[in-house]
Amino acid sequence: MGKVTRKRYAAEFKSRVALEAIRGELTLAELASTRKSHRRVVHRVRL
Which is it for the CA torsion 9, 18, 35, 31, positive or negative? Predict the structure, then answer.
């Protein structure tokens, strides 16, 4: 088995998610679902 590493998100992805989260049109769970990531990632990026 190979070593498992954490997924790294590009700055472009983080900025798009942060802008969408700040707009507040979707909940964090909905936003995470559309972006195929965990809601904690979205929350961390939003801050």
Answer: positive
